[in-house]
Amino acid sequence: MSQETPRTRTIAVGAIARVEGEGALRVTVKDGTIQDVELKIFEPPRFFEAFLQGRHYEEVPDIVARICGICPVAYQMSAVHAIEQIFGLHVDGALRDLRRLIYCGEWIESHALHVFMLQAPDFLGYESGIAMAKDHASLVTRGLRLKKAGNAIMTLLGGRSVHPVSVKVGGFSRVPLRRELDVLKNELLWARDAAVETVRWVAGFEYPEFTPDHTCVALCHPDEYPFNEGRIVAGTGLDISVDEFERHFSEHQVSYSNALHCTLQGAPYLVGPLARVNLNHDRFPHAVKQVLADTGLSLPLRNPFHGIVARSIEILYALEESLRLIDRYESPSAPSLPVTVRVGTGIACTEAPRGILYHRYRVDGDGVIREAKIVPPTSQNQGRIEQDLRLFLPRVLDRSNEEAALACERVIRCYDPCISCATHFLNLEIAQVKE
Amino acid sequence: MQAIRIIGLGNEFRGDDAVGLLAAIRLQERVGNHVDVIEAESVGVELLDMMKGAETVLLIDAVCSGQVPGTIHRLDASSRPVALGLFRRSTHAIGVGEALELARTLGVLPSKVIVYGVEAEKIDIGHLLSPAVDQALHKVVELVLREIETHVCTNSIS
User: Fold this and answer.
1) For the CA atoms of A181, A187, A188, A191, what is the dihedral angle to 10 degrees?
2) Which of A69, A162, A296, B62 is least buried, going by the fewest C-beta atoms within 10 A?
């Protein structure tokens, strides 16, 4: 907390979630102009990078699943694909389909939680999902049921809904029978219809006019909406193999935060559903394209608040894709490929619910991890969130401290960062600077 | 319908934040078949499903309320909300307090919910419990066992 001087405003709005560090936003204003925006909302998984060193590659999926409680599959997918690159393994056929399917499950449950419990309340004027539930129990129940449909896929394929235990290098420790997948279908069909309703519902919200200039970055694949495979593509025209990520995207330390800021050609960039939809919407099946077109929103989506629409459309896509994958599934002859350990370095980038998640590992002759690097999507979005706050803040500077902080939280929630879930998670400090 | 269910919440990589999870693991070894034990690594709306079908839920989690580390709070959530700011929040989900209130709002809160909150000292990333919380872990396991015994006796009599 800074000192109060005649020209300094200091606001502290509650403590944020204690688990991954305090959220703090420090804004410096001089003569009504915003000088600096310093956002600290996310701690990178550096402990895990260190912890992974000396571990056997077989332990990696179990460890990385604990980096993120709501996207364990994403961390496991990036990890196993990177290690499989070292070992010269390519997972294809039914196993590749199962990996897409379990990822669908995670997108559905992560996006459903965010749409219904975290961001919809902002649009409907409620201070939390619980407050919204008092007036709209059936809406919230729908959202929870959608989330549960995603969880059901993850539990069937992963063995447990939280921290799936069956994902491994080479495939899975167990694969489902076709009839086990068929059991999910009725609920997924309900969920698919509920998802269409959800897109229509969120498309009807009132959106503030706000169109900052984003550089969108996402995976891109010639045949499919991306999950585990593809090239890295940006709105700037960049089109690179995942192996070249570190040559084009750089990380640098900022003084006020533990987080590393990521830039592309010196500028912040955006990952996540909005970026994915903008760069990949032509890969949607026709039915999904139609629902998106019916919203009347023009592409590319430029308003960060439209992230809720992008997420809702992706819930629908993931359900359509799940039904398609289940319909064509035939049990593979083996749940995983045989593994021969090789020395080397491997890289992978997959589309977590919040955006591209980059992993790099170096493995020695005994299959032991010697080096690990993990770049999460929320880290990559931090610079962009700061920029957007800088552009948005002038609208709210004349409001009370509390209202300004609430408005900032709503902007930050558009990105679904890993800290957005606590209703009041921000310590906001606005410092007026003297000459 | 399951009479008693124990839910231990915690993250084993977050220091004292592991205490609820560790309590559940120990309780699993000590309780009979009539008691369900769930070890849960994440908190949030999943709690609603975890509680489903149980008459009595005993929840164990780490808390940060500024009290002396190792202090054990026993809170009866059945009749009134627990302090929302009390519980550690996973940044990926709503907190325990909020999840219980959501369950209550939607009419799905079990008839008896008791929360044991163990005051944490350090929840930085790391693998070990601080000494005070390690001691409290033993204590809370015994307290929960005693709670189960009392419950079973009371229900046998009535």
Assistant:
1) -160
2) A296
Residue that has been written with the tokens 């993990």 in this structure:
A374
Global pTM reads 0.90
Are the beta carbons of A105 and A154 closer than 8 angstroms?
A: yes
Domain segments of chain A: what residues?
46-379
Closest residue, chain A, to B41 (C-alpha): A162
Give this complex's ipTM: 0.82
B38 touches chain A (CB under 8 A): no
Asked whether the beta carbons of residue B48 and residue A128 sit closer than 8 angstroms, the reply is no
Domain A46-379 bears CATH identifier 1.10.645.10: yes
Smallest Cα distance from A159 to chain B, Å:
14
3-state secondary structure of A49: helix
Q: Which residues of B touch A111 (CB under 8 A)?
A: none
Between chain A and chain B, how many beta carbons pairs sit less than 8 Å apart?
Answer: 95
pLDDT tens-place string over residues A246-297 = 999 998 877 776 667 899 988 999 999 999 999 999 999 999 999 999 999 9
Superfamily of domain B2-157: HybD-like (3.40.50.1450)
Chain A residues within 8 A of B10 when measuring between CB atoms: none
Omega before A300 within 30 of 0, i.e. cis = yes
| Residue ranges of domains in chain B | 2-157
Of A20, A48, A161, the CB nearest to B91: A20
